[in-house]
Fold this sequence. Notes:
- This protein has 10 helices and 14 strands.
- It is of the alpha/beta class.
- Helix 2 runs parallel beside helix 10 and helix 3 packs parallel to helix 4 (about 115-125).
Amino acid sequence: xxxxxxxxxxxxxxxxxxxxxxxxxxxxxxxxxxxxxxxxxxxxxxxxxxxxxxxxxxxxxxxxxxxxxxxxxxxxxxxxxxxxxxxxxxxxxxxxxxxxxxxxxxxxxxxxxxxxxxxxxxxxxxxxxxxxxxxxxxxxxxxxxxxxxxxxxxxxxxxxxxxxxxxxxxxxxxxxxxxxxxxxxxxxxxxxxxxxxxxxxxxxxxxxxxxxxxxxxxxxxxxxxxxxxxxxxxxxxxxxxxxxxxxxxxxxxxxxxxxxxxxxxxxxxxxxxxxxxxxxxxxxxxxxxxxxxxxxxxxxxxxxxxxxxxxxxxxxxxxxxxxxxxxxxxxxxxxxxxxxxxxxxxxxx
Length: 349
Ligand code: AHR
């Protein structure tokens, strides 16, 4: 046995060393795990329910949100596209609640029908931030705050431009025969823009002949415009509730042999629209085919980020946060419009 003692000593030394090292390895592994847990714990989890992908505006809006809510910026994002269906968005919100996200960001497809699911979010103590369109809920405490555009103001700017331009040309208001290609019905953008035109038509004495939805898409607007051209032979203004619709309407007008532009006294059809995001539409505006565009700014990612940061700091941001927006036209006759006491310069598209 004696002769084996030095060997045993060496074996015990090795075992002892391994145990020591093993202990170190375990603790460093745990530290690594701890670190990653720590990292995940410090990320703010956001569930974002986007309503769909109907327009270039929407794509730019989604891009802005995805570029903002990154791990580098301190977020873990769960993104769901609602494909234009409120039911999908409600399911997404319920999933976010189950996942116990820190914040729910909702870009709602329409205004009505959100009360139950937003109550569920409130019961789960998850703050909801609305972005772009709003929800119509009698209990405003169902959401923390909203950020987006003043859609009716956009409409007031466009209609003020139409009024300034046409009166400047000496056109009697009753000679404006207008059709409205509306957005998808029932959301804040459509409601504000439709109301803005209806009020202007009533106040100025324009002939508003039809209001039909083009679903904010080029294809549907082309169909709607084709049908309107069959129904009316005196259309001289087409009010499109977004740029994609304007592109579709222009395609239908030109295919029907109509000239598109501001000079309605010479038989052109004036097209106006909203957004200022789609490059083709901006080019049309530079050529004068779209006479006037009220900007609708889609870059809400950093704005929602700022709202979350404020809530994280224990601040209560303003309930309604409006984005400043411009108005574009390349037609030099009108240099500015004044709406609700504020003057907006007309900017080059
Ligand atoms: O809610 C914003 C509107 O929705 C944009 O003007 C339109 O293009 C979009 O689809």
